[in-house]
Amino acid sequence: MAATHHLVLASASPRRLALLQQAGIEPERLLPVDIDEAPERGEHPRSLAKRLSRQKAEAAFQVLRERDEAEGRILLAADTVVSVGRRIMPKAEVEDDALANLRFLSGRTHRVYTGVCAIGLSGRVRQRLVETRVRFKRLTRDDIRDYIDSGEWRGKAGGYGIQGLAGAFVVRLVGSYTNVVGLPLYEALALVEGEGFDIHGVRRALRETGETA
Ligand SMILES: Cc1cn([C@H]2C[C@H](O)[C@@H](COP(=O)(O)OP(=O)(O)OP(=O)(O)O)O2)c(=O)[nH]c1=O
């Protein structure tokens, strides 16, 4: 399989881009897609994360195909879902979502699932589903008030971002940390490498042009 340097990240999430950059990789471009993220009736959180990551990757692949730009490119998409048991914690868009989520997660262990999907040169789809268990301390009223005031919950699965203030809520974490932030790096890189993406070649090229993070 021919090696390629062209990775397209099908995401609008600044966290996903930052994680790739942390791993020394700069995507050739970002291609966010808008899909319906509502769970199906009775859908398990892990199935939801897997399904949505695939839908994002397929929708972006379709766009590249329509523009006749799929050739020589590998697509990467992800979706993160926070849950307690089968209960899916909504992505926090308004303050009330964030409040309800934080109160529910307080003093409990929850799971964070990220589905990762890569579509390569041949149009072949590769997927991984990664799970991390996170236990939060019992949150005080002041913890919750500070967090709501910070606005960091906005647009985040489960209504928190472990990479910010909420890092101090974590008593225990089992599994991949980058998975919680939104892109499990080990698994994501293994997927794109499996499709012929030349990780080391890209890092080398970025070092030579002085663009490395
Ligand atoms: C749990 C958690 C989630 N998040 C973020 C990552 C994702 O951006 C978001 C989960 O929503 P997603 O629907 O997975 O992603 P998105 O809509 O933000 O971006 P796109 O679909 O374009 O890729 O929550 C954190 O940043 N930190 C955390 O600790």
From TrEMBL:
Nucleoside triphosphate pyrophosphatase that hydrolyzes dTTP and UTP. May have a dual role in cell division arrest and in preventing the incorporation of modified nucleotides into cellular nucleic acids. GO terms for molecular function: dTTP diphosphatase activity; UTP diphosphatase activity. Keywords: Cytoplasm, Hydrolase, Nucleotide metabolism. GO terms for cellular component: cytoplasm. Its EC number is 3.6.1.9. It is found in: Cytoplasm. Its cofactor is a divalent metal cation. The active site is at 79 (proton acceptor). SUPFAM superfamilies: ITPase-like. One of its GO terms (biological process) is nucleotide metabolic process. It catalyses: UTP + H2O = UMP + diphosphate + H(+); dTTP + H2O = dTMP + diphosphate + H(+). The record marks 15, 80, 163 as: Important for substrate specificity. The keyword Hydrolase applies. Transmembrane segments: none annotated. Belongs to the Maf family. YhdE subfamily. HAMAP family: Maf (MF_00528). This is dTTP/UTP pyrophosphatase. CDD domains: Maf. It comes from Consotaella salsifontis. InterPro entries: ITPase-like_fam, Maf-like.
